Amino acid sequence: MVRYELPRLPYGYDELEPFIDKETMKIHHQKHHQAYVDGLNKSLEEIGAASHPKYISSILSELTSIPESGRGNINFFGGGFENHRLFWEIMTPNGDGKPAGKLEDAIDVYFDNFENFKKIFAEKAISIQGSGWCWLVFNQTYNKIEIITTQNQDSPWTAQKTPLLGLDVWEHAYYLKYQNKRPDYIKAWWNIVNWDYVGNRFSELPV
Ligand code: MN3
Questions:
Q1: Distance from Cα 140 to the centre of ligand 1, integer Å
Q2: Residues 140-167: what's their mean pLDDT?
Q3: Which pTM value belongs to this model?
Q4: Which domains does the chain have, with CATH numbers?
């Protein structure tokens, strides 16, 4: 594996306005995400694994293979790197607001309907104490989709779950525009979810 680099955003910093403001996007990408990139590269170097043959999501899914001395750092910076990489991809200025096809069907099966899914997802995201993420994941063990939360930068991959959709509820993701009003940020965020992209992730799962 070559050194990790900050991925390009698939849209401009101002294009998620008014739901996420330009300044937040810029700091989040250029400062926060960059810090996870740098931290991941440094953490791999420190355990002599700068050329680890596997991609970070595979490393996270078998974290116990990492020497104990470096495991915490790989978990934090590697999770931070990969969580944010996905976060940028699952947003778009041109969302049509709802899932379709196979994912829509699965949401209806496990959550009754899309409105109910959004309600449960938002409640879980709001209830995270401190910093973390709320996810729609595919549970490989039980062959089903589910909503989970993780603390800090913990990755669903580490719990053997494939992230389909993730929401960053660290304050750095919303505080400039929404201050302490996390529910308002979540409500706005639904407008910019890229359901085409999320649906494709689900369709392409090897099941
Ligand atoms: Mn973040």
A1: 26
A2: 97
A3: 0.96
A4: 22-89 (1.10.287.990), 101-203 (3.55.40.20)
Residue type (1 letter), 157: W
Query: How many angstroms separate the alpha carbon of residue 26 from the centre of ligand 1?
Result: 11
Q: Compute the distance from residue 172 Cα to the ligand 1 centre, in Å.
A: 6
CB count within 10 Å of CB 62 equals 12
Instruction: Give the Å distance between the CA of 207 and the centre of ligand 1.
Output: 30
Distance CA 131, CA 32 (A): 14
Q: Which of 95, 96, 80, 94 is nearest to 7 (CA)?
A: 80
Instruction: Tell me the C-alpha distance between 52 and 77, whole Å.
Output: 15
Residues 78-125 have pLDDT tens digits of 999 999 999 999 999 998 789 999 999 999 999 999 999 999 999 999
152 Cα–ligand 1 center, Å:
9
Distance from Cα 28 to the centre of ligand 1, integer Å? 6
- Asked if residue 206 has pLDDT above 90, the reply is no
- In this structure, are residues 170 and 84 in contact, taking their beta carbons and an 8 Å threshold? no
| Amino acid sitting at position 50 | A
In the structure encoding, which two tokens stand for residue 7, read together? 């991925």
